[in-house]
Amino acid sequence: MENGNEASRINRCLIERQRRQHMKSLVSKLFALLPPRPNKMSVPELVDQAIAYVKQLQKKLEQYKQIKVQLEDKLASATACTTRNRMIVPPVLNIRDLGSNLEVHLITGLNSEFALSDFISILQEEGAEIISATCHHAGDRAIYRILSQAIYPRIGIATSSVHERLKSLTCLKKQHIPTAN
Fold first, then answer.
1. What is residue 144's three-state secondary structure?
2. Is 40 domain-assigned?
3. Where are the coiled-coil regions (predicted)?
4. What is the helix (H) or strand (E) element at residue 120, kind and residue range?
5. Is residue 136 one of the residues assigned to a domain?
6. What single string gives the DSSP state of each residue in 36-61?
7. For the segment 112-141, what is each residue's pLDDT rounded down to a tens digit?
8. Which of 47, 69, 137, 156 has a Cα-to-Cα distance from 116 of 20 to 30 A?
């Protein structure tokens, strides 16, 4: 019987040792999650610090949630105001003549009804071959960039004619922008 009791006692000791090692590992992980402390703490002090820290984080989280709600409300009211007033951004057209290449930049509001294909058609009609065409959105603006080169470099591209046609297209489109009441 003594061998059975001895084996049982050794088994309990091993289980207890594993439990203590596991607890030590958990306490170490908990200590690593807390802000740095200059001195060693007992386990109860560590748990108290962890509880206080978690409560502090919960308060901060609630404050951040309130700030988020306030900012979302401000954004919603600003968006509603902008939508009601339908701020129309006049288009900005910039054309750079680069010899046999032509670079067209157009900045419009997102509520504008510009089709990049209209600009490309005009450039092609004026003797340009499109190298690249891009559109980017930045805030409430759409930024178009078209890079083209002359189909026949000796003839070139009539920059003034392109400028006038594109300018008239932007003015025409500006007149057709619907506004909300």
1. strand
2. no
3. 47-81
4. helix 116-125
5. yes
6. P-SS---HHHHHHHHHHHHHHHHHHH
7. 666 677 777 877 887 788 888 888 887 777
8. 156
**Domain boundaries, position 167:** 92-175
- CATH number at 147 reads 3.30.70.260
Residue 145: closest CA among 128, 133, 129: 133
The reported pLDDT for the residue numbered 161 is: 76
Closest CA to 151 of 169, 127, 131: 127
Strand partners, 128: 150
- How would you class 148 by CB atoms within 10 Å of its CB: exposed for 0-12, middle for 13-18, buried for 19 or more? buried
Secondary structure (3-state) at 153: coil
For residue 94, pLDDT beyond 90: no
Return the structure tokens found at 23: 């607890």
Q: Are 122 and 169 in contact (CB under 8 A)?
A: yes
The H or E element that residue 130 is part of is strand 128-138
Residue 146 within a domain: yes
Confirm whether 165 is domain-assigned.
yes
Residue for token digits 């050794």?
A: 10
